[in-house]
Amino acid sequence: MKRINLIIALVALMCCPLSLSASTSTTVIALGDSDEMTLSEIIALGLPVLYVETVDHEEPTCDYVTAPPGAMSSSIANATKVPGRLIVYNRIADVDSVMYDSGEFEEDVSGMTIKIRGNKSAYDVKKPYKIKLQKKFDLMFGGNDAVYKDKEWLLLRDDFLTTIRGLKVNEVVGMTWTPRHRFVNLIINNCYRGAYLLCESIKRNPDCRLNVDKNCGYIFEFDPYWWNEPVYVKSSRYPSYSYTFKYPDDEDITEDQLAYMLSLVTAYERSLQNGTYTDYIDVKSFAGWCLIHDILGTKDAGGTNMFYTKYDTTFASKMVMPLAWDFDMAYRTPSAWSASHIEHMTKLFNSSNRTFTGEYAALWRRIRFTFIYDVNSAMTAFSKSAEGMALDASFALDQILYNRTTSVNTQINGGNSWITSRYSWLNNSIEAMCPRGDVNVDATVSIEDVTALIAMLLNGDTSKSYADVDMNGVVNISDVSYLVNMLLGN
Asked: Which pLDDT belongs to residue 468?
C-alpha cells in the first residue's frame, strides 16, 4: 500500500481536489493480489476511465494457436465475445462524472461486448481488446456524434508510445486516414487492467473511417495470419501470405466477390512483374506506406498489417493503401531499410517502370525538411499535456501490475533521438536511389531528364510529383528551367 499512497500523493500535486460521489468513492478496484484503490482514485489519475462490467463477471478468453506447415507465426482462436456494460468516467469541474453509459446488455439495443484481439500481441499478459457497442457512439467525444459514432473500438497496448508516434508519422506523410486515438484507463470487473490506447478500428464507415462502396467496395489485408481466417484468397506472390477481408464481413462474402478478388490480386501481382502496376494501384499511397516504415525503421515485415481499399469494382478504382498500422517493431533498423521495404516493396523499387521509385523520392523531399520537427514536437507536446502527465501516473500503476518500468518522457525522448539520428542515413540512401531532377528515374541527372520532362508536359502528364523539380507543388515549364539551371550549375 505504500506504493499506492505515493502515487496518490503525486497525483494530488497535479490535480484539483476531488468532489466524490458515493459510488466512485466506495467502489474498490483490485490492483494485483494485494493492492487496491477506489474508482475515484483511478479517475483522479486524469485519464478517462472505461469501466467494463460483464454479465456474471465472465472474463474474455481465447485459445492460442500456431501456424500450420507452410504458414508463419502464432495467433489466437475462439476468442469469447463477452456481453456487458460500459461506463466512461472522467473528471469535469472537480466532479467524477459519467460521460457515457451503454446500459445493461440487450442485443442490438444497449450494452456492449468485449473480446481479446490481436495475434502475437494477445500472448502478452496485458491483453489488447476489441469493444463492440450495441448502439453507435463516439467514444472519443469528438463533439459531433452524428459523424464520428461507430460500434467498434480498439484498446491497444502502447507502453512504448510507438503507436501514437507511428500514427503521427502516418498523418505527416499524408495518408488517406489516421485513426483517432487517446489514452484511457481500463477496468474490467472491478480489476484495473492498465493504461490503454483507445483507437478507432479499421472498418468501413464512410463518414469518418474508410469509405468504400457499400455494395461493391472492399477493404482487405495482405495477411500472414490468413490461416486463422475462415475466408481468404491465396497469393501467388508469397506462399506464406493470403488476402483476407475487413469488408465485406466473412459471412457476407459471395462466390462472385471471391472470384472478383482472385482476379484482382492475380492481375495486381502479375503487374509487379511486368511493370504495369500503375494500372492497378494508387502509387502515392503505396510509396507513403513504405516511407512511413522506413522512417520508423520497423523490423517485422509480417506484422506491419498491409491494408488496402478498393472503392468499387470499376477499372478506374485503384487499390489504395490508406494507412500504416502496427508499429510494435519500430526503431530496429538504424542504418538499413525497414523489413517492409525489403520484403514487400522490392519488386516496385526494382521494376522497369520507375514511377514508384520516383513518387517515393518525391514524397520524401516534400516532408524531409519538416517531418522531424512535426513529429518530435508533437510527441514532446504530448509529454507536457494533461493527457501525457496523466498517462505517466497510470504507468506507475502498470508497473505494479506488470512489473514494467517506463515513463512517458523516457519513451518520447528515446523515440525523438532515434528519428533524428536516422535522418542522415535515410536521406543519403533515398538521394542515391533517385537524386533530385532525375525525372526519368535512372539514378542520374542529365540532359535526358530535360527531354523526359518536356515529353511529360507535351503529353499533358503533370500527375507525376517527382517531375516537380523546383518543388513548388506543380509540374510545369518552370521545372524545365529549374532543371536546365541545375545542369548548368546555376
From this structure: 94
